[in-house]
Design a protein that fits this description.
132 residues; mainly beta; seven-stranded mixed β-sheet; two-stranded antiparallel ribbon; 1 helix; 9 strands; globular; disordered N terminus
């Protein structure tokens, strides 16, 4: 629980340090059961580990309804548990039964229809790929 709180604090600090001109770049996340508003910013590089197995998750459709799907699971190197990734990593092709270490970047992209900024992850480099 302490690691989650520290990660949330660091994320909040990093995300609150930047602003984008007039875009609605805030998202609400739940941290330790409490909703918190955070800003979505571009991050040039960070490393994540991709699990060899996908997780079942719920994704929104174009009309706003939620459907069950399979999602990648990721964690940062200092985290113990995996988190489902509700989206893709651009430029990355997943193969089941392999554990990946990826160097990715996050770019803040605005949805023109809703004027809401969302994070998009883009592959910088596959650091390692290990069969499980």
């Amino acid at each position: 629980m302490k690691k989650l709180a520290i990660a949330a604090l660091i994320t909040t600090f990093v995300l609150s340090g930047c602003s984008t001109m007039g875009m609605n770049d805030e998202r609400t996340m739940v941290v330790e059961g409490e909703p918190v508003n955070v800003k979505v910013v571009s991050i040039p590089s960070f490393k994540i580990e991709i699990s060899p197995l996908k997780a079942v998750c719920e994704l929104p459709t174009a009309n706003g309804t939620m459907v069950e799907s399979e999602c990648l699971q990721y964690r940062q190197t200092y985290q113990k548990n995996y988190t489902p990734l509700n989206g893709d990593i651009q430029g990355f092709t997943y193969e089941p039964n392999y554990r990946y270490i990826l160097d990715v970047r996050q770019e803040a992209v605005m949805n023109e229809a809703t004027k809401v900024v969302k994070p998009v992850w883009i592959l910088n480099e596959v650091v390692s790929k290990t069969a499980e």
